[in-house]
Design brief:
Length: 238
């Protein structure tokens, strides 16, 4: 999704108390940045922040980190978080934003961070075969998440793209995640906790159905570890 350059975004982020400028310095110690202890959840590709602002302001016992690579998006997310918290007369103490390339997420999170949940909402489907490894649900990414996602930790994934959803189901299986829930047309009565994002509303208006799944990280049964990206490549060659 292209967004116009916003010269004000970086200066606003630099002055923002809940924006982390050097995320690599926080590797292994994200929990210490929050005022209160609580489960930590990530939104990967937080965009304009509508989802994380609604979720975080409604669940003050949880801590949230929103990650995006674009200052322009994060600037809008910062403003939307402030708007939502001000509307509810709340202090912003359980949410952080940071700018980073999610393909290198292991550079900013370690096994010591113990993340409880990851949200991936309407990420780029990267339909061309040579680009699929860039998907946020690709095996190369799921392998990285397993390092810092705690045992029984969950990944919530939504998309309007059929191919991305079906292939992601295979990615999760290859990486040893258990699919707890999946639906090919998400309706309000199916999952009452759903927060409708800007993209979700847009795709529904276009007549597209929303696919949704919850995957759970399983505890490794063996002392041997494996790289699910390599396993995926091996299966593709068979």
């Amino acid at each position: 999704m292209r967004i116009r350059r916003k010269p004000w975004a970086r200066p606003e982020l630099e002055g923002c108390t809940f924006f982390e400028r050097n995320p690599e310095e926080n590797r292994g110690k994200w929990a210490s940045l929050f005022k209160e202890k609580g489960p930590i959840c990530l939104e990967l590709g937080c965009g304009k922040g509508i989802f994380i602002s609604t979720l975080a302001s409604s669940n003050l016992n949880f801590n949230y980190i929103g990650i995006d690579i674009k200052d322009e998006m994060l600037g809008l997310a910062k403003r939307n978080i402030e708007k939502e918290y001000n509307k509810k007369n709340l202090s912003i103490e359980n949410v952080l934003l940071t700018a980073f390339d999610i393909s290198r997420i292991s550079k900013i999170f370690s096994e010591e961070d113990l993340i409880d949940r990851i949200y991936i909402n309407f990420c780029n489907p990267w339909p061309r075969s040579k680009h699929k490894k860039r998907r946020l649900t690709h095996t190369r990414q799921l392998s990285q998440y397993k390092v810092f996602l705690k045992d029984k930790g969950q990944i919530f994934f939504k998309t309007d793209d059929d191919d991305l959803f079906n292939e992601s189901l295979k990615y999760f299986e290859l990486c040893g995640y258990r699919i707890l829930y999946k639906v090919y047309e998400l309706k309000p009565e199916d999952f009452t906790e759903n927060i409708e994002t800007e993209h979700e509303k847009m795709f529904k208006e276009m007549g597209k159905t929303i696919k949704f799944l919850i995957a759970e990280k399983q505890k490794e049964k063996s002392v041997l570890t494996f790289d699910c990206e390599l396993l995926g490549k091996a299966k593709e060659k068979i």
